[in-house]
Amino acid sequence: MPNWGGGAKCGACEKTVYHAEEIQCNGRSFHKTCFLCMACRKALDSTTVAAHESEIYCKTCYGRKYGPKGIGFGQGAGCLSTDTGDHLGLNLQQGSPKSARPSTPTNPSKFAKMMVDVDKCPRCGKSVYAAEKIMGGGKPWHKTCFRCAICGKSLESTNVTDKDGELYCKVCYAKNFGPKGIGFGGFTQVEKKE
């Protein structure tokens, strides 16, 4: 049937989409008001859309429905996401998570590399992932552990010094490890010899 007097049909409502109100995604046209996530109904744009075949989702719902599942996959590093997406109308895998995952990794070298290459924070001894890593003294630190060992002040690249694998602010370093005597950090008198 010919398409008289208008543009393409909207991928969501099937009504005619005119050029002034058209958004294209994955070769399909949508009204600006119809360009919504199919699960949570959040408004989408070119930076937040994730398409799967003829369906469009926000990146969060797309990840819940089609992304990896299990420990470490979720909203942040080291996160266990127990959100199944049921409140969004997503029908995810049913059954126990063990039966859905293969018993051995599909690419053992990649899996082993991922588990071995995680650095440990010198302050707390826990794993430091890329999203929370700050380098200081040649070692990776958590952002929250990147503090002076004496006063606890949060450090930056402009005020950090290191000694024997520990971090200090410049003031604490000068007081504890700097030169002593007149004009050097805290001492105002020189002892007289009798």
From TrEMBL:
GO terms for molecular function: actinin binding; metal ion binding; structural constituent of muscle. One of its GO terms (cellular component) is Z disc. It holds the Pfam family LIM. It comes from the Eukaryota. It is found in: Nucleus. One of its GO terms (biological process) is muscle tissue development. CDD domains: LIM1_CRP3, LIM2_CRP3. Residues 8-68, 119-179 form the LIM zinc-binding domain. Keywords: LIM domain, Metal-binding, Nucleus, Repeat, Zinc. SUPFAM superfamilies: Glucocorticoid receptor-like (DNA-binding domain). PANTHER family: CYSTEINE AND GLYCINE-RICH PROTEIN 3 (PTHR24215:SF1), RHO-GTPASE-ACTIVATING PROTEIN LRG1 (PTHR24215). This is Cysteine and glycine-rich protein 3. It comes from Charadrius vociferus.
